[in-house]
Amino acid sequence: METKAEFSPLLDTDTPLYMQVYNYYKSLIVSGKLPPKTKLPSLRHCAETLGISRTTAEGAYLQLCADGYILSKPKSGYFVTDLYFHAPRPALAPQAEKPAAPLYDFASLSVDRESFDFNLWRRYLKSALRQDERLLSYGEVQGERDLREALAQYLAEKRNVVCRADSIVIGAGVQSLLHILCAVLHDKKTVAFCDPAFLQGRAVFQDHGFTIREREADAQIFYVSPSHMDRRGDVMPTDARIALLKRIAARGTLLIEDDYDNEFCYFDRPAPALQGLDGGRHVVYIGTFSRLLLPSIRISFLVLPDSLAARYREIAPLYNQTASKAEQIALCQFIRDGHLAGQIRKVRKLYTQKARLLETAVREAFGKAADVRLRETGFVVQVRLRMPLAADDLEQRARKAGVSLRAENDANGACTLFLACSGVRASDFPDAAARMRAVCLLQDTETPT
Amino acid sequence: METKAEFSPLLDTDTPLYMQVYNYYKSLIVSGKLPPKTKLPSLRHCAETLGISRTTAEGAYLQLCADGYILSKPKSGYFVTDLYFHAPRPALAPQAEKPAAPLYDFASLSVDRESFDFNLWRRYLKSALRQDERLLSYGEVQGERDLREALAQYLAEKRNVVCRADSIVIGAGVQSLLHILCAVLHDKKTVAFCDPAFLQGRAVFQDHGFTIREREADAQIFYVSPSHMDRRGDVMPTDARIALLKRIAARGTLLIEDDYDNEFCYFDRPAPALQGLDGGRHVVYIGTFSRLLLPSIRISFLVLPDSLAARYREIAPLYNQTASKAEQIALCQFIRDGHLAGQIRKVRKLYTQKARLLETAVREAFGKAADVRLRETGFVVQVRLRMPLAADDLEQRARKAGVSLRAENDANGACTLFLACSGVRASDFPDAAARMRAVCLLQDTETPT
Known about the structure:
Two copies of one chain form a homodimer. Chain A has about 450 residues and is α/β, with parallel strands linked by helices. In chain A, about 40% of the residues lie in helices and about 15% in strands. Chain A has three domains: about 15-80, Winged helix-like DNA-binding domain superfamily/Winged helix DNA-binding domain (Arc Repressor Mutant, subunit A, Orthogonal Bundle), CATH 1.10.10; about 140-320, Type I PLP-dependent aspartate aminotransferase-like (Major domain) (Aspartate Aminotransferase, domain 2, 3-Layer(aba) Sandwich); about 350-440, Aspartate Aminotransferase, domain 1, CATH 3.90.1150. The first copy, chain A, contains 15 helices and 15 strands. A seven-stranded mixed beta sheet of chain A has the order 4-10-9-8-7-5-6, with helices on both faces. A four-stranded antiparallel beta sheet of chain A has the order 11-12-15-14.
């Protein structure tokens, strides 16, 4: 084996020579060039071959022994151990190719680039990063107290949510909080979801041994996102909210209200939170800032009823905080300075404008081929086609034409498209509308240029 | 009821008048001043009392109806609903007062202020925050690919860990990752912990329905932190590591190696990771940056064996990423630029110096009353007292004297203190040593001034 050429001590002057020898042999062992049970050269031979002193060679061999790469057998020398796994590792199956992002995405409620003032947020985060002493310690397990206080005030004022800083738990994303909530709710066993497609919520409850029930009436816990009851983004009207609260109070069900996106559902102003309507007795409220500010900000929160807040306190030391402390500090000041309320006003205004522009663009493209109207909620444009088309097939063909959208057939077979305006630039609406028209009228999907 | 005085429309010119009327009644209802079933003034009376138009009053009442605060009963008027809970809420029991932080903390391995270059980290985070487009989207569920690639390379070079970017999962803290790991390991049922005091790990496994076994041999999973086998911070020597790997391979046990703090355990260089010694076949490796960089940075990672990585891929879409995307982007560049390796070198050097200074300070204070020596690992000074003392009692009295420390009695009743140097400033060592001496020699705990 030609080994000398690979050992080039002069290339690395920072590492002690004996460690260079160590690394050299280690790489030969780990790569399988020196298989298990191979005898290493004697110390004298090693020193001569590599042009080093015997002491240096001995230092390297001792370290190789200490780290389990070689064994010293008295009177016979040094041998490579059989611990390392030298066979080539089977390659993982290649990850499934992600489908290319659609050119125009009317299906996801992604955030609009114009909606967020990055410079402003950066300023708050920079200011948080200057708090050296605070960042040197672990944060409160429940979340930073000042953020919880600012949140409690904000929620009481803007969302009718009945809460105190003590009943709020901060976490990095809804799932982190559901893990804690499942531990708090350990005496319950069954849960039902208003939206059965909320797989990430189901997964956490199942992981914690809960049984998923199909019907609200059969479960001890009912999980509802009043502003996203289904894939069309239907919002629960106030009378349905009140009826639901009466049902769960009568049955003793615990309600989990995931207030995801509620702020953005109404052109005018959001519907009242179930938690507030209930007086905070039977409802756990969950909110998140990922959609309100930036998807990359992972801060969400739970508001617990008093009985559960007391139970949370008992187990709190067992659960670490997951949210970034710097981002918590920044967000606290951001809320205190009124920017959260301002951000919501700004986004609502932006989306209102965009939804109207989209409505106009689609109406102009489809003409008499569809009945186009703006839904009251969700900044969604609803396009009821006058020709019968299969919704699944239409979604797929639209996707091929670069447009991601949701379509649905009603009982009579009529097909309706639901277009969320937030994820597409307004300047792209005309082109997107032309593509959709071509797909729906079974024309060539390339738009005329 | 004197209500007019409270309604001051001129104070708030941004809110439409009808919403001011709405807010005014809402506050009366929510505060209980207008109890359930109370009849509201007629529209005409309301308009007259508040000095507004009838249309404005009607707008406010309609919104109150829509939001569930009042009900309209045909031909009889508007009534407060009975949904709101007006009784004063029982106050939560006050949170237990946290014990005051000790003046000198030799018990926790908290991070040294001098150990971290804040300005450097701030620069990386600021640079990450400039990547507007990237921050506008949700990140990869497994963690940012470029960070996983940088980590894989770092771990292979510095920790002998056998891994690829594909087998790494990023998360906000060890618990977030254990939740995912428990879902991946769903076919196993039992787990044992090398350190039974690791309550936060036990909690997650118990939440997922695992049974905790006392003995390694009785469990399908064995959780070990080789650099923190117990409260004294004992480190597992290399021969014990090899023996453990042979045992688990023979039994088919899965090992979880929580490599917490390993980089800081040795004056010279850390012991090889079990994962690498095993060739990554039966070991799940967990690492974290909270202690290496800043406690407030919540980035940890799992390295999965191939079989588990394949299983993770199947369920990955069910589990959101919890770590801050901005911090992931910053950390990736920080590692690529070699600062992680530099940081470890810097901290190790700092702690080596401090441990020696602490050894000297304690030796001078105790004189012949104790046998003081530096442990080989963990930057811990070990103080073996020559007088018999009960460790528990000693810990409590030290705490009263402002010093937090760990003490242990051996089988012969001899008492040994274990002092970690990282959390106390070197300039405080003489005062802290004097206080400890006073506690051990049962003198007045106030140091002479």
